[in-house]
Structure formats: structure tokens, C-alpha cells
Write a structure and sequence with these properties.
Largest sheet: 2 strands, antiparallel
Distance between the termini: 29 Å
Structural class: mainly alpha
Strand content: under 5%
Shape: globular
Radius of gyration: 20 Å
Helix content: over 70%
Amino acid sequence: MTVMMTRLVGIDVARALALFGMIIVNFKLVMGVKEDDSALYFITSLLEGRASALFVILAGVGLGFMANSSEQRQRISFVRWQICKRAIALFLIGLAYSPIWPADILRFYGLYFLIAACVITFSNRALLWICAGLVINFVLLLSLFNYDQGWNWDSLVYKDMWSAQGMFRHLFFNGFHPVFPWAAFLVFGIWLARQPLLEKSFQYAVCKWALMIFVVTETTLWLLRNWLVPDVVNNEVGELGVLLSSQMMPPLPTYMVSASCSAALVLIACIWIAQKWYQNSVLKRLAQVGKLSLTFYVAHVLIGMGILEELNMLGGQTTETALFCAAIFCLMAILVSAIWLAKYKAGPLETVFRVLTR
């Protein structure tokens, strides 16, 4: 297997794992799983905001590869136009899809891609500064505006989503995956694509620093929560708990750093495994799922949640039931991707998307 193929297999495997994580999180959400003290709930909760962050970073890596090829470097204006066409397609598909699945990420992807088209030729240092700027700008917005505006947190419904002001606020500030700061994940992915991902020294350095930063961040937050939260007045516990957490809403710098580190660890691990065991059948099956990630992302809502609705399972379910249903869907995705790719080169929605953005 060539160097490029090894790298792509690792990335496809990481994309499949990100997809599986998103399916678990979303099935838990729509099946109304209540918070409890079980180990299984805690483990599955670790995926919240992290699987989707990995998904966005991998999209950035893909764009970075597209722009970094020797052929494309000669026609960077063409690359920018291709990215812009994808951005428009993703945004429109996401808007059409959002009445069915309000937590959809595709409309946000469209805006991330527009930013990517602008910065795709920037230097590595500039890309990292842009990441920092997106994160800092969110903190500034949070200090100036009401993050709760538009939200009914009990039902997770955004009340004025379809007004001009509400749509703008939702997309750029307080939606599920707002441009500030989520676009930083995509830009970080572009930066990663320029790095020597197959070199052992780079892999070791990324894993060392990412693991260290992740552990220090999460440990510090845990210690501060246990030290400060019990001593505050009851009506302030919630807000302080949020500020001392790495949860995805609101996406504070602690979340962005923690999620970036966990995503980098998973990505490097997948590439390293692909280098070592690229002929492993399990790896090949996972890589096939990664190739059809857009198809399965849409299918897990239209088909997966549609079946759950027919079975009257949207609400009041346990963590075990949600995880079981998600596992069944993931296993079906592995089976369907193997059958489909035996006949076709790309997934159905991937093919349609390619035609639309040609």
C-alpha cells in the first residue's frame, strides 16, 4: 500500500469512528435518555461534542489534502471555487434538512467551508492564529450577548430559528455548532493536513502533547469543580459548573482545547494502526464506512430515527437501549458499505454531492 493510501485509510477509519460516536450521541438525545450515575452513561457522554469535533477536523484535513497536491497548487483559484461550491451545497442541504433534524451540522459546514476557501493558502502559523482568533471571538461575543437567547433548553428547540436575526445568531453564535468558534476545528484540520502525519516522530510528539494537555485540562477543571461548586449558592451552581466544564454548549476555550486534543489522539492512532495493520479486515470494513460517511450521517436520521419513531422509542429510554440501537445501526452501516462499495466507487449521497459540485 502506498504512503498516500495508508494515510487515507487511517483517515477513513477515523471518520467512521467519528460517525459512530455521533450516532450514539444523537440516538441518546432523541431517545430521551436521562442523566444517571452509571458507568455506561458516563462513557457515552464522553462522546458528546468530541465525535462531531473529530468529524469537522477530518473535513479540514480533506480540504488540506486537496489544496496541498502538487497539481492543485498550480490552480489554487480553482480549488477555492470548488470549496465554495461545496460550501453552498452543504449549506442549502443543511437548511433543507434542519426541519427534520434541528441539530444537523451540515448547514454549519457550509459556512466553515467558506472560511476555508479564504484561508486555504495561509501559512501554518497564520492558520493557528486564526484558530485562536475564532475561539477568542466567541468568548468576546459571550461577554456581550445573551447565549440563552432563542433557546428553550428543556426541549432543545430554537424558537426564532427562521427569522433573519435568529438564523444569524444561531449560525454564528449560539447554535449547536456555531461558526464562532467551531470553524476553528476545520482550520485546525487544514493545518494538520500539512504536517508529516506518517512520520513516527510527529506522531509521538502529537500524542505526547495532546494527551498531556487533555489530561491537565480535564483534571484542572475537575479539581476546580469539586473545590468551588459545593461552596456556592444553589442558583449559581449551574452557571459555575458550565464555566468549569469542557462540555460543547457553550463551546468555551476549555472545550475547544480538550476536543481538539482528543480528536488529534484518535486521528493519529487510526493512522498508526493503518500503517501497522492495513490488511486487517476489520480496518478495511471501517474504512469503507468512512467513505460513505455523508450517506450514513443522513441515513441515521431519516432511516434510523424514523424506525425508532415507528417503534415508539423516541423518549423515556435507557442508556443501554440507546446504545443497543446505535450499535445495530452501526453494524448495518458496516454491512451496507461493504455491499455497496463492491459495486460502486462512492456512496449514493457522495456521488450526488460530487455531481452537484462538479
